[in-house]
């Protein structure tokens, strides 16, 4: 197909697995059209970041732009922010792009300690430590917090970085049904000796790992209920806020703020700087003891080059904007905008008849396609419409085989007009591809 040859499909078909890509090369979409002609067509290169806070994507294959509903750019800090950019440029001049050293070997700049204090203050914990990559924050930290003789109870839809961290820990791992406090309790009860809460148990330590917003479901964690269960069974809680920090809560402080949970009730708060703050890296915020323990034992801290100083400065500046410490009300406006945008987009999609996953306030919005053959058809039709819309489609093995979906990520930099136009395209595509599954028409799987 021409669209595929010109590289249209790749940007919206975000299939992450080589095997699945190969599979799709051989099959047809739901209109019986061959899906792709060359493996390369599944990739596209973004030529440069657009000058509108990454609201649109500018791609090499076409000079036209498409509305960016793919990036995790929740607060619109990706690129060209008037407060962040000059400060990031200064930090580049002062510290260069890399420290070329691990934190303990001369790789700690003033910016790193400033960011750690700021993150701790922002999320409401006594201390924090930052890492060069969000993925590593989970995969390297979890094995330092729990090991042999310990039990990790992980939500069934936790991110791969958590899964790898748990696997690398030597602890026993059990999985509980996604976002289901009752099933978590069942698993905990089975694991506690005698089946009685608060009695002697076989495990040295139990850690329950959950996410604030689930990135493929758009769902908020049932955090208050999960914490209640953890308290009852004296289990520790580990909360990954990659998609919720900065994105939800009245002042952007994540699911704790949104759901009225005291941060003191979450033992370990993890987050990334890649979604709301337009940068890269991750953090752990916890008690002074836990943070010191990680600083002394975690290989991701001891043996990895520290976070790039300009990336650190970007996060510092973005958090200051969110807190209003830049002297403007832009932070508050961004937070209000992302909430309004998300709730507007979600309710409009529902009215149109799409099956939308997730909760109000969440900027992550998957709509169900179910049939994997509808993925390329959906992506392609999106691009055929006059307004080009870049979306991510998600399929097996990221989701079960018959639960394919398209996912929209809403940003504070989208205007109501952008979203209205995108909804119009999505509605037309939904009719063409046959994915307006009003409740009565939903496939029973
Ligand atoms: N945790 C979750 C829940 C994520 O979705 C991601 C990445 N999307 C990560 C951790 C890893 O973060 P990063 O991309 O910043 O390395």
Number of helices: 16
The radius of gyration computed from the alpha-carbon positions, rounded to a whole number of angstroms, is: 22 Å
What fraction of the residues are assigned to beta strands by DSSP? 15-25%
- In which order are the strands of the major sheet placed? 4-10-9-8-7-5-6
Q: How many distinct beta strands? A: 14
Bound molecule kinds, no repeats: 4'-deoxy-4'-aminopyridoxal-5'-phosphate
Return the structural class.
alpha/beta
Note down, in words, how this protein is organized:
This protein folds into two domains: 2-78 and 332-441, Aspartate Aminotransferase, domain 1, CATH 3.90.1150; 84-323, Type I PLP-dependent aspartate aminotransferase-like (Major domain) (Aspartate Aminotransferase, domain 2), CATH 3.40.640.10. The chain is 38% helix and 15% strand. It has helices spanning 2-5, 8-12, 18-26, 84-95, 110-123, 134-145, 160-167, 181-191, 223-232, 255-259, 288-297, 299-302, 309-323, 330-352, 374-384, 416-433; strands spanning 46-49, 56-59, 65-68, 127-131, 150-155, 172-176, 205-211, 236-240, 268-272, 282-286, 364-370, 389-390, 392-394, 404-409. The strands form three sheets. The protein has a seven-stranded mixed β-sheet, sandwiched between helices. Strands 1-2-3-12 form a four-stranded mixed β-sheet. A hairpin with a 6-residue loop joins strand 1 and strand 2. Helix 5 packs parallel to helix 13, helix 13 crosses helix 14 (330-352) and helix 15 crosses helix 16. It starts with a helix and ends in a 12-residue tail after the last helix. Mean pLDDT is 86; it is low at 1-29 and 34-43. Bound molecules: 4'-deoxy-4'-aminopyridoxal-5'-phosphate (PMP). 4'-deoxy-4'-aminopyridoxal-5'-phosphate binds at residues 133-135, 138, 159, 161, 211, 215, 240, 242-243, 272, 274, 282.
């Amino acid at each position: 197909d021409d669209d595929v040859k010109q590289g249209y499909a790749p940007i919206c078909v975000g299939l992450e697995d080589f095997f699945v890509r190969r599979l799709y090369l051989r099959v047809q979409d739901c209109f019986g059209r061959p899906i792709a002609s060359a493996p390369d067509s599944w990739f596209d290169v973004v030529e440069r970041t657009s000058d509108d806070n990454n609201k649109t994507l500018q791609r090499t294959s076409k000079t036209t732009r498409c509305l960016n509903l793919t990036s995790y750019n929740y607060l619109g800090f990706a690129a060209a922010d008037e407060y962040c950019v000059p400060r990031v440029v200064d930090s580049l001049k002062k510290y260069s792009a890399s420290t070329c050293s691990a934190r303990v070997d001369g790789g700690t700049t003033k910016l790193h300690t400033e960011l750690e204090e700021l993150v701790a203050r922002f999320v409401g914990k006594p201390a924090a430590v930052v890492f060069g990559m969000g993925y590593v924050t989970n995969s390297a930290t979890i094995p330092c917090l729990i090991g042999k003789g310990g039990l990790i109870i992980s939500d069934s839809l936790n991110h791969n970085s958590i899964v790898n961290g748990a696997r690398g820990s030597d602890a026993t791992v059990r999985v509980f049904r996604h976002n289901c406090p009752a099933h978590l309790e069942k698993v905990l009860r089975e694991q506690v000796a005698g089946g009685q809460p608060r009695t002697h148990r076989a495990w040295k330590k139990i850690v329950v790992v959950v996410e604030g917003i689930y990135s493929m479901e758009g769902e908020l964690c049932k955090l208050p209920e999960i914490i209640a269960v953890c308290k009852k069974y004296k289990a520790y809680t580990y909360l990954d806020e990659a998609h919720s920090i900065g994105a939800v809560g009245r002042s952007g402080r994540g699911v704790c703020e949104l759901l009225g949970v005291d941060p003191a009730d979450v033992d370990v708060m993890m987050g990334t700087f890649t979604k709301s703050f337009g940068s890269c890296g991750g953090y752990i915020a916890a008690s002074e003891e836990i943070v010191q323990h990680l600083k002394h034992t975690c290989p991701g801290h001891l043996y990895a080059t520290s976070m790039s100083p300009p990336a650190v400065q970007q996060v510092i500046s973005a958090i200051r904007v969110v807190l209003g410490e830049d002297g403007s009300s832009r932070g508050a406006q961004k937070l209000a905008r992302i909430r309004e945008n998300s709730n507007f987009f979600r309710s409009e999609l529902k009215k149109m008849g799409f099956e939308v996953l997730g909760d109000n306030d969440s900027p992550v919005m998957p709509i169900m396609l179910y049939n994997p053959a509808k993925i390329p058809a959906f992506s392609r039709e999106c691009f055929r419409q006059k307004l080009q819309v870049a979306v991510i489609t998600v399929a097996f093995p990221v989701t079960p085989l018959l639960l394919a979906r398209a996912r929209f990520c809403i940003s504070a930099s989208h205007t109501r007009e952008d979203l209205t136009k995108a909804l119009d395209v999505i509605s037309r595509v939904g009719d063409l591809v046959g994915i307006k599954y009003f409740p009565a028409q939903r496939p029973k799987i």
